[in-house]
Amino acid sequence: MCGRFTQHLSWSEIHRLAGLIGRPRNLPPRFNIAPTTSVEVIRPAAEGGAELVPMRWGLVPSWWKKPFKELPATFNARAETVAEKPMFRSAFKSRRCVIPASGFYEWTGAPGSKTPHYFTAPSGEPLAFAALWEPGTHPETGEPLVSTTIVVGPANGWMACFHDRMPVILGWRDAEAWMRGEDPSALLKPPPEDALREWVVSTRVNRAGSGDDDPDLISPAAASPAPPAEALP
Questions:
Q1: Is 161 a catalytic residue?
Q2: Is residue 167 pLDDT above 70, yes or no?
Q3: Cα–Cα distance list, 218 to 199, 206, 222 (Å)
């Protein structure tokens, strides 16, 4: 699963990694992104290259007409069924994108006493989540709405001690092939064992919607070993 992640990104870095076009803009740091909020998404641009677009996290199919409260959870799409599920198959066929993430959270332990962990690249470089996007209209207001979902698959061996699922993390060199290629299914695989680092963080992150701009949320908790300096923002 991937139910919470961070984006503290610079335009210049994402431009370098993804070949963005368009005018640079400030990207406010986000340290506790929850489903249904807006996230930054990289998608193919009509004139070539890629563009960075804000989208609702939680895909809303263009044919969905019922109220949001009846929409099932669509912030993740399972890699094993994404090509067949009615919610996602059209987007998987022709609207693939990448969500740049500074890191993501996962929890371990029993209900009521879960421990939050933060995962990020050892180099500090943004992660590239395989994702899908969908154009449409808000089912209740009729206003234009663009939405997205993160593709998740089985955990690699290293991640399995924390959770049995994880986001599909692409190498940046594979981002173009994912978004425009003819065989996207070939990229739906776990990342290398050394793709991530982890440390325990404060339970403050459990409160979705609180402290979205607080970098202390990703600081190591007192009992957690400190990550290498290059992994911190």
A1: no
A2: yes
A3: 9, 12, 12
Catalytic residue (choose from 2, 40, 97, 134)? 2
| Residue of 40, 106, 134, 198 marked active site | 106
3-state secondary structure of 178: helix
Tokens in use for 32?
């506790």
Structural domains of the chain, with CATH: 5-219 (3.90.1680.10)
Segment 3-27, tens digit of pLDDT: 999 999 999 999 999 999 988 999 9
107: CB partners within 8 A, 6+ apart: 114, 115, 116, 117
Q: Hey, what are 208's tokens?
A: 């979705």
What are the distances in angstroms from CA 104 to CA 19, 163, 185? 23, 13, 23
